[in-house]
Write a structure and sequence with these properties.
Shape: globular
Strand content: 15-25%
Structural class: alpha/beta
Distance between the termini: 32 Å
Radius of gyration: 22 Å
Helix content: 40-55%
Largest sheet: 7 strands, mixed
Number of helices: 14
Bound molecules: pyridoxal-5'-phosphate
Number of strands: 14
């Protein structure tokens, strides 16, 4: 048996399908966002980043930076252990209280990341409910899918945002069977919104629990920035709200906010919460600062929304095909993995605009795209330059319109 050959052939399969992942090496510079340095052949190039999930540039906000530096000086770098053994800092306890309050819930539980929050919470909930059935939107994130798989529970995948399909699936099961519906408030690749009101009505009718991933919405929507549920006044119709500290809040970590009893059960049973080192207190303090800043300040959100509209106007003028959703995410459709990668390369090499190509399995085959997340710090000049570069790159790769790639 030749182990290397097996791994090589798995990698070659990805390369042949045009979906081998190339990571760009970036050096971020505090105060320069959305500009950064791209390191290529040991040269540093100044680039404009269009695909960051640091949606509002909060990772470079002065208050957040100062909090983190001062907290490191006061409390050191690491947390010293798991939450159970010596890692339960008062910073993390305070953050959980703030998050509970932020989402109008009794309690919150913080995890190492949004991924871990989803995987651990969903698998633990399903295991505790024993013979439960989970109803999951077909576009749910990989971390949700992983949590469901780990639980070995019965699962039903409903067509994206299709309430009729969801209800038909629920009706197959007896009233007494425990049920959880898992969905997202914003789907990151199409930038469309989950039907929170419709799904919570169905949940109520069939006595199902609801679990909502608000990762792309926290910091971004609602008066205080606590998400789409806040914007719609629907916090109370969702049982478990999940979020991240790593996107709009510009730091790192994930969490759930829910009732006392659900949070206590997760805290007590979720292996991905219990058996891992707690987040460093300085990072937690930085996250708290970012949240309280965005609760009060909405100028970042307003500018972000303005720039999204502006970018769409520019793209429309040049007939560049994008999904016109109502969120902050602007997906430009390429619909061919090799062309998508090629356009991304042209943008970076010739124009110093960085947009990562999004290929299968992140999106379905044939729907490859460039996912743009305009931020409050992009200027109209940058938007106009990007549009010109995109137009050029689409024209230059026009041959893909005529020859079909297998
Ligand atoms: C990014 C993402 C996560 C994971 O959050 P991290 O904090 O990055 O681990 C979970 N759900 C969705 C929908 C995401 O896009």
């Amino acid at each position: 048996m030749n182990y290397s050959d097996i791994f090589k052939s798995s990698i070659n399969k990805l390369k042949n399908e045009g979906r081998y992942r190339y990571f760009n090496e970036i050096e971020r510079k505090a105060g320069m966002h959305p500009n950064a340095l791209w390191i290529s052949e040991s040269k540093k190039n100044n680039i404009t980043v269009w695909c960051s999930n640091d949606y509002l540039g909060m990772s470079q906000n002065k208050l957040v930076i100062d909090t983190m530096i001062n907290s490191v000086k006061k409390m050191g770098t690491g947390s010293g252990g798991t939450r159970n053994i010596s890692g339960n800092s008062n910073a993390i306890v305070q953050l959980e209280n703030e998050l509970a309050d932020f989402h109008l819930k009794e309690k919150a539980v913080v995890f190492s990341s949004g991924y871990v929050a989803n995987e651990s919470t969903i698998s633990t909930l399903l295991s505790l409910l024993e013979d439960a059935v989970v109803f999951s939107d077909e576009k749910n994130h990989a971390s949700i899918i992983s949590g469901i798989k780990k639980s070995k529970s019965l699962k039903e995948i409903f067509k994206h945002n299709d309430l009729k399909h969801l209800e038909a699936l629920i009706q197959k099961y007896p009233e007494k069977k425990p049920k959880i519906i898992v969905f997202e408030s914003i789907y990151s690749m199409d930038g469309d919104f989950g039907d929170i009101s419709g799904i919570s009505k169905i949940a109520k009718k069939y006595n199902a629990l609801t679990y909502l991933d608000e990762v792309h919405a926290v910091g971004m929507y609602g008066k205080k920035g606590s998400g789409v549920t806040e914007a719609l006044g629907l916090q109370n119709s969702i049982d478990i709200i999940q979020g991240t500290l790593g996107k709009a809040f510009g730091t790192m970590g994930g969490y759930i906010a829910s009732s006392n009893i659900i949070c206590d059960a997760i805290r007590s049973y979720a292996s991905g919460y219990i058996f891992t080192t707690a987040l460093p207190p300085a990072l937690v303090k930085a996250a708290s600062t970012s949240i309280s800043y965005l609760k009060k300040s909405d100028k970042e959100r307003k500018m972000q929304q303005k720039n999204t509209i502006l970018l769409k106007e520019y793209l429309a003028k040049e007939n560049i095909n994008f999904i016109d959703n109502k969120s902050h995410i602007v997906p430009i459709m390429v619909n061919n993995p090799i062309r998508c990668k090629e356009i991304s390369n042209i943008l970076l090499n010739e124009f110093k605009h960085y947009i990562q190509p999004i290929n299968y399995p992140t999106v379905p085959v044939g729907t490859e795209r460039l996912r743009i997340t305009p931020g409050p710090l992009h200027t109209e000049k940058m938007i106009s330059d990007l549009t010109i570069a995109l137009k050029y790159a689409f024209n230059k790769t026009d041959r893909y319109n005529h020859s079909k790639i297998a």
